[in-house]
Amino acid sequence: MKSLLRILFAILLPPVGVLLTVGFGGAFWLNILLTLLGYFPGVLHAVWVIARRARP
User: Which of 3, 20, 41, 49 is spaced 20 to 30 Å from 55 by Cα?
Assistant: First the structure.
């Protein structure tokens, strides 16, 4: 359920989804940069980070 909520945040506001997953790390700042360069790259990166961290 948490991953689903994070994916929803990743689609609406990509940096928030990454922030909830990894905190204020390098992935968060990279996601902000990607989102500023284009919304779609930010969403892709956010979903990738969340999916990578959701593995058991």
Answer: 41
pLDDT at position 56 is 61
Three-point CA angle 28, 33, 36, nearest 5°? 125
The pTM of the full predicted model, rounded to 2 decimals, is: 0.88
Instruction: Determine contact, residues 10/18, Cβ cutoff 8 Å.
Output: yes
Asked if 23 and 17 count as a contact pair (C-beta separation under 8 A), the reply is no
Domain boundaries, the chain: 2-54
Per-residue H/E/C for the chain:
CHHHHHHHHHHHCHHHHHHHHHCCCHHHHHHHHHHHHCHHHHHHHHHHHHHHHHCC
The confidence score (pLDDT) of residue 55 equals 64
